[in-house]
């Protein structure tokens, strides 16, 4: 006859099982993220390709990197693997450890589909490297971490430009951003503070914290009124207005405020960063709405921003202590929600900014002092 286990063993087994059951329940609850699920269904195909339906069905490396991050935050390893696999096979010549991904993929003139521009996008590559390293840590998948570190090493050798006697700058891509006169075109929204802090922790000998510190020191020149431009230029020994965009800020620059709002509150440098950008908050408070475009000066403010801009500003306003303006923007964003997506038509970029900004203030993830992402399921 089989002996039944004693009460002591049953109780011991229960204590082992309870944390596992609690963890499973927590993970299940944390992955209920309607905005992510709506984005996944509307913009990501079965292979893991993120499709920008409002721009000829194209795919950009930025979209793949963002979706990879959101899949990690949602604790969705199967979707993560699909996005990762598509990105590596189609954008990185089959090996992210050896190739930085092409930034643009879509339909060619002959009707075939493939890489349209093999140049890289440094912001996308940094998000890919960071997310892979974090996935390796959070999911205990060493291969992801190895790939992320190998990609990070490539970025360090091809996307960093130290100026003799001056700052260290981030090249937006491998080609096309340095002038014959030695000038360098910079995209401020490519500098993601908590990401660079995290990468420095991962790669102590890397240039990541130096890049961030030098960028922060240049902020008074880049945006003297706190209004960030999409692009700016380092020329000789100072920042000058980008001649192509004439100092206008819009779809790129809005991310600067998004990132600034995500840095941990206790970080003194973060407080200084947000303080340098508060002029933009004052501008929208005075206007009573978020414009689609602005300039580094007192002119050029125009248009009504799409829903994503409102979402991007939520972390920044939450951290800068303006609850009335925060609630105003949050209410406006909520009113743009149609069938689970934001805006009509629902555009890819708006949904991304919603997942970042609204996802952050709703508690789906945050970053710790070491720059590590802490998803709600952990």
Automatic annotation (TrEMBL):
It comes from the Bacteria. The keyword NAD does not apply. Gene3D superfamilies: 1.50.10.10. It holds the Pfam family Glyco_hydro_8. It catalyses: Endohydrolysis of (1->4)-beta-D-glucosidic linkages in cellulose, lichenin and cereal beta-D-glucans. GO terms for biological process: cellulose catabolic process. Keywords: Carbohydrate metabolism, Cellulose degradation, Glycosidase, Hydrolase, Polysaccharide degradation, Signal. The keyword Hydrolase applies. Residues 1-24 form the signal peptide. InterPro entries: 6-hairpin_glycosidase_sf, 6hp_glycosidase-like_sf, Glyco_hydro_8. Its EC number is 3.2.1.4. GO terms for molecular function: cellulase activity. Belongs to the glycosyl hydrolase 8 (cellulase D) family. NCBIfam families: PRK11097.1. This is cellulase. It comes from Solimonas terrae.
């Amino acid at each position: 006859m089989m002996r039944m286990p004693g009460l002591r063993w049953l109780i011991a087994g229960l204590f082992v099982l309870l944390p596992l059951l609690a963890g499973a329940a927590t993970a299940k609850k944390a992955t209920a993220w309607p905005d992510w699920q709506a984005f996944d269904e509307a913009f990501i195909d079965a292979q893991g390709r993120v499709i920008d339906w409002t721009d000829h069905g194209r795919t950009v490396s930025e979209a793949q990197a963002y979706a990879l991050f959101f899949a990690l935050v949602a604790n969705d390893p199967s979707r993560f693997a699909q996005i990762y696999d598509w990105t590596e096979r189609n954008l990185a010549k089959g090996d992210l450890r050896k190739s930085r991904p092409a930034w643009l993929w879509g339909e060619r003139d002959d009707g075939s589909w493939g890489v349209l521009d093999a140049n890289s996008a440094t912001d996308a590559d940094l998000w890919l490297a960071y997310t892979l390293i974090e996935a390796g840590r959070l999911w205990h998948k060493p291969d992801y971490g190895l790939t992320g570190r190998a990609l990070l090493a490539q970025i360090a050798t091809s996307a960093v430009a130290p100026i003799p006697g001056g700052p260290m700058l981030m090249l937006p891509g491998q080609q096309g951003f340095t002038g014959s006169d030695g000038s360098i075109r910079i995209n401020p929204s490519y500098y993601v503070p908590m990401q660079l802090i995290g990468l420095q922790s991962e790669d102590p000998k890397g240039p990541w914290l130096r890049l961030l510190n030098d960028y922060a020191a240049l902020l008074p020149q880049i945006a003297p009124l706190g209004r960030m431009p999409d692009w700016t230029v380092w020329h000789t020994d100072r920042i000058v207005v980008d001649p192509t965009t004439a100092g206008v800020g819009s779809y790129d620059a809005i991310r600067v405020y998004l990132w600034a709002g995500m840095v941990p509150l206790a970080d003194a440098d973060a407080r200084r960063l947000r303080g340098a950008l508060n002029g933009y908050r004052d501008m929208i408070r005075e206007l009573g709405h978020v414009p689609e475009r602005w300039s580094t000066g007192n002119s050029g403010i125009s248009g009504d921003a799409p829903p994503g801009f409102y979402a991007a500003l939520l972390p920044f306003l939450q951290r800068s202590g303006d609850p009335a303006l925060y609630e105003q923007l949050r209410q406006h964003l909520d009113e743009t929600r149609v069938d689970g997506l934001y805006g009509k038509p629902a555009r890819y970029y708006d949904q991304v900014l919603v997942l970042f900004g609204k996802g952050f203030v709703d508690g789906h993830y945050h970053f710790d002092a070491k720059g590590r992402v802490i998803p709600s399921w952990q």
